[in-house]
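Margin note: ligand = pyridoxal-5'-phosphate.
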Amino acid sequence: MKEKQLLMIPGPTPVPPSVLLAAAAPMINHRGPEFAEALAEVTAGLKRVFQTQHDVFVLTASGTGGLEAAVVNMLSPGDTVLSVSIGVFGDRFASIAKAFGVKVESLDFEWGTAADPGKIRERLAADEKKEIKAVLVTHNETSTGVTNDMAAIGPIVREHGALVLVDGISSLVAMDCQTDAWGLDLVVAGSQKAFMIPPGLVFVAMNDRAREAMQKASLPRFYWDLGKAKDYLKLGQTPWTPAVPQVFQLRAALRILEAEGLQACFERHVRHGAAVRAGIGALGLKGFADPKHASNAVTSVRKPDGVEVAALRKLLLEKYGVVLAGGQQSMKDKIFRIGHLGYVSQSDIVATLGALGLALKELGMDVDAAAGAAAAIEALGG
Ligand SMILES: Cc1ncc(COP(=O)(O)O)c(C=O)c1O
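Resulting structure:
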């Protein structure tokens, strides 16, 4: 049956029925009182998720739009930034800065590994003239399934004085991101990840340091002007027509998250991450990420010997209705990725590993097809 699919990619993620239905409400005036009420509720909820007392803005865009907003609001032409990249999305953040005439110095780490906070400290310590205006860093690198230690990196950058601009597009809700406590000046998150909403919204949190930087920054900006977002938020509006149905969906999703509790939600992601990794290992597969920094939102798996990634994903989709992601750029055909962020249940994890075992066996791998699901059940406490 084509219609029933288990969507296990790292975004877009499955959407709970009540969140789907929230979009089916009649359209309202986006400059009227009902929208103002919804925007106030979601902004308060987002502040709890970002663990910040400062501003959070809801923009109508995909995640990349939020990254562009970060660049154009924080920087001026000719500024220097340090790009700490561990994969495709770290590189994208740097590319956006370059596109706007910002000088980008790269501090890249091997894909599959996390950024070494010590190396960041070293590079910043050498910047005696304080030329580095900002550090661009990805919290959860979705392309490799690696999570950076933002609790360590944030304070190191703060010590130097540069701004910390964080791509938290696939990390928020899936893992602890203490925006204020870790000194993260600007954090971007995407609706289609652990927030359990369809694509279309991006959230940008920024503190007072970022607001001061915005006042001095001179890169051209219009749609992404976060100063306008702040002014309009005071009126209960967004500067431009927002994706109203997704704002309703955000409200419904945040209510689900409030009921679960943020801490319980993080713990669920930790449990699911551990179960997927246990299942992968039991099937004789190797994770791509450094196990010390393996993400609890997405697991990257090395291509098994004798099995093509494309064939495996095709069989999983067509026979088992399980959708997994492939590798990106240089990792294409070398890894596949299992998303386990957002609206994912224990039984989704078990079913995915069961289907993976069956598919691997069918493609000729000498494997106990049930081993992955069994290990996941065991890890989940069964
Ligand atoms: C970490 C990270 N950064 C940036 C992006 C880009 O977001 P979008 O595709 O919504 O523009 C993604 C999307 O997968 C991501 O996971």
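The chain has 13 helices and 14 strands.
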